Amino acid sequence: MNDRKTTGFGVPNDIDPHHFVVEIPAVRENPVVVTEHFGLAGGTNGLADTVVRCKLPQDHWNAVRKELERVLNERLKEKKLGTARWKSGKNQVERLLGRELCVLLWAVEAAPKEAIPNAIRNWTGLKPEERWWLFAMAASVTGTSDDVDIGWRKAIRVAMTENPTGEEVGAIRAKNPRRPEDRPTLPLFERVK
């Protein structure tokens, strides 16, 4: 095990670190709220102390929570850090993992439930750096809980939920072949009789 002490999902056990908090209410009608806490840097140079990044309906949260927990814990194990489980109340998440988490939550916050499995598959297929980039693009202008399904947030939803995976790709390629030899041929000029 690594000598570094952490709490929750990899949050350094330092004085006021930059991290995210996923608050899971006990009352199912209330949304799951994700807040970014800027730690010691918060409140300086025009930076807020906290920003509410997402408010997610609990049924959508329940559809992604297991996969999120699995992926975040895999990443923590790679760094030889302790793992965690989601619980009711406040769950701390390391800042980079929190950014990745937000990308998936933003993808599903306004999506129909049947599209969530596709979003999960597409999200897990991204590298961490790609998730960080998507977070940065969305958070720069549309990064609060009030910015649901606009700008980059909408682009993330469309890319993650509508981008086909698995057998869907095969079906699409069968309809729209990419290789020239698979495309139907048409004569360049029609013969005039």
Detail the poorly predicted runs.
none
What proportion of the residues form beta strands (DSSP E)? 15-25%
**Helicity range of the residues?**
40-55%
Number of β-strand runs: 6
* Mean pLDDT reading: 87
The description of the largest β-sheet is: 4 strands, antiparallel
Following the backbone from N to C, one meets helices and strands in this order, namely EEEEEHEHHHHH
Write out the strand line-up for the largest beta sheet, numbering strands in chain order. 5-4-3-6
Structural class, by secondary structure, is alpha+beta
Over all CA atoms, what is the radius of gyration?
Answer: 21 Å
Number of helices: 6
Query: Whole-Å distance between the termini?
Result: 83 Å
The global form is: globular
Summary of the model, kept short:
The protein has 193 residues and is an alpha+beta fold. Helices cover 41% and strands 15% of the residues.
Question: What can you tell me about this protein's structure?
Answer:
Helices cover 41% and strands 15% of the residues. It has six helices and six strands; from the N terminus they run βββββαβααααα. It has helices at residues 58-78, 95-108, 116-124, 128-142, 151-162, 167-175; strands at residues 6-7, 11-12, 19-24, 32-37, 50-56, 89-94. A hairpin with a 3-residue loop joins strand 1 (6-7) and strand 2 (11-12). The chain is globular and about 55 Å long.
